[in-house]
């Protein structure tokens, strides 16, 4: 028998931070299609529908069952008319014609190709497209195109860094960074963050938090680590951003909170396998290091944590030592661990491996 609506009368929250989402996606056939639509809306800077399809994809990822009929989706939030029309096509024909049309579109294909290069965002991709460029060789041989340092590395290591990084490779990199950090100070602490902390098997990069209990010392950590990696001959690219952290500045209202901690975007050569890998390091002060400084993700999970705080709790979430702030009273709530943040927001704790929203 087919599942009926009654089989699934569990309430699903509209906020990703109130759902448990593992890496096992039972509705990939739908969410893959939605992701194409999201990319296409983003390329055209159409934000509303982009967010709508991102949210819909996130809801479907959280389900422990596969949607087999639209009748079973009545209780699900964030599924609008358009979303359901796409799902209906997929249920009926196994594919969405709207999505297929986009996939066959030259502009979409070209922007997708260009933005797959490290250092090339939608704006640059669009600029190149408008100049009539359609391939990497067009870009690389056009005398009017000046690549910045990041883009040059992106092209140089394109093959390597577009290949997924495995857990074993992430571990090997962890050892290298750990050794570098400990050579600077025996107190250094390294923690895996990003997708691998959420239990993903593969990633597009490896993300680490590195810090030390000695206040202020974390500021010098990254430059010294970078220097060491250079001396070891494994640094292929580095883009270092010193801390712009200012505890007196009010928390950001944005969905996408870019934090102000020292960070660097690297390309390292993983010896043995002789391949280039993208690595991100962020170095917050010790006191905020346990916080989900936006780096554990997923992006949708972090966005919804902020959205819920703002809309349902009238608080602003920030990665300062005082991380949640009731909006209309000038009061800060201190959070020392991730669990504190969930508690302040009146949320059940969601483990990192359940944040694959
Ligand atoms: P993948 O396996 O593709 O790497 P991921 O979830 O690890 O998946 P990342 O792009 O590495 O994706 O980002 C990890 C987290 O760090 C995300 O939640 C993202 O929002 C956050 N993040 C990325 N760049 C920055 C930045 N410059 N400042 C603050 N947070 C960032
Ligand atoms: Mn990552
Ligand atoms: Mn990253």
Tally the structural domains: 4
Classification by helices and strands: alpha+beta
Q: Unreliable stretches, pLDDT < 50, 5 or more residues?
A: none
Tell me the name of the CATH homologous superfamily of the largest domain: Beta Polymerase, domain 2
Query: Count the helices. How many?
Result: 14
Please state the average pLDDT score.
90
Shape label: globular
Q: What kind of sheet is the major sheet?
A: 5 strands, mixed
Q: What is the count of β-strands?
A: 10
- Rg computed from alpha carbons, rounded to a whole number of angstroms: 22 Å
How far from one another are the termini? 29 Å
CATH architecture of the largest domain: 2-Layer Sandwich
Bound molecules: adenosine-5'-triphosphate, manganese (II) ion
Spatial strand order of the main sheet: 2-4-7-6-5
Helix content: 40-55%
CATH C-level category of the largest domain:
Alpha Beta
| Helix-strand sequence | HHHHHHHHHEHEHEEHEEEHEEEH
How much of the sequence lies in strands comes to 5-15%
Explain what the structure shows.
This protein has 14 helices and 10 strands. The relative contact order is 0.11. It has helices at about 30-45, 45-60, 80-95, 95-105, 105-115, 120-130, 135-140, 150-155, 160, 165-185, 195, 220-230, 300-310, 340-345; strands spanning about 165, 190-195, 200-205, 205-210, 235-240, 260-270, 275-285, 315, 320-325, 335. It folds into 4 domains: about 5-100, DNA polymerase beta, N-terminal domain-like (DNA polymerase, domain 1, Orthogonal Bundle); about 105-155, Orthogonal Bundle (DNA polymerase, domain 1); about 165-290, 2-Layer Sandwich (Beta Polymerase, domain 2), CATH 3.30.460.10; about 300-355, 2-Layer Sandwich (Beta Polymerase, domain 3). About 40% of the residues lie in helices and about 15% in strands. It is globular. It binds adenosine-5'-triphosphate and manganese (II) ion (2 copies). Adenosine-5'-triphosphate binds near residues 194, 205, 259, 294 and 297. One manganese (II) ion binds near residues 194, 195, 203, 204 and 207.
């Amino acid at each position: 028998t087919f599942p009926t609506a009654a089989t699934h009368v569990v309430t699903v929250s509209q906020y990703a931070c109130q759902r448990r989402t593992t890496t096992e996606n039972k509705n990939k056939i739908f969410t893959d299609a939605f992701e194409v639509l999201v990319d296409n809306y983003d390329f055209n800077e159409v934000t509303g529908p982009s967010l709508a399809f991102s949210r819909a994809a996130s809801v479907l990822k959280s389900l422990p069952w596969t949607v087999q009929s639209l009748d079973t989706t009545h209780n699900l939030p964030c599924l609008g008319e358009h979303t359901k029309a796409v799902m209906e096509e997929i249920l009926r024909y196994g594919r969405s014609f709207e999505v297929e049309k986009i996939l066959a579109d030259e502009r979409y294909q070209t922007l997708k190709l260009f933005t797959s290069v490290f250092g090339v965002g939608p704006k640059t991709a669009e600029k190149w497209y408008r100049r009539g460029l359609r391939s990497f060789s067009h870009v690389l041989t056009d005398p009017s195109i000046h690549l910045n340092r990041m883009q040059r590395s992106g092209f140089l290591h394109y093959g390597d860094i577009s290949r997924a990084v495995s857990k074993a490779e992430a571990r090997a990199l962890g050892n290298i960074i750990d050794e570098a950090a400990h050579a600077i100070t025996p107190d250094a602490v390294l923690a895996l963050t990003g997708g691998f902390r959420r239990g993903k098997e593969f990633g597009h990069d490896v993300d680490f938090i590195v810090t030390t209990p000695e206040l202020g010392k974390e500021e010098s950590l990254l430059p010294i680590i970078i220097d060491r990696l250079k001396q070891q001959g494994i640094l292929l690219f580095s883009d270092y951003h010193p801390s712009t952290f200012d505890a007196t500045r009010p928390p950001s209202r944005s969905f996408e909170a870019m934090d102000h901690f020292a960070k660097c975007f690297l390309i390292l050569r993983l010896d043995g396998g002789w391949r280039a890998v993208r690595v991100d390091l962020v170095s917050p002060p010790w006191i905020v290091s346990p916080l989900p400084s936006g780096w554990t993700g997923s992006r949708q999970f972090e966005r919804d944590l902020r959205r819920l705080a703002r809309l349902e709790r009238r608080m602003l979430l920030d990665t300062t030592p005082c991380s949640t702030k009731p909006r209309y009273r000038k009061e800060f709530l201190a959070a020392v661990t991730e669990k504190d943040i969930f508690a302040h927001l009146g949320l059940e704790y969601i483990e990192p491996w359940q944040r694959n929203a």
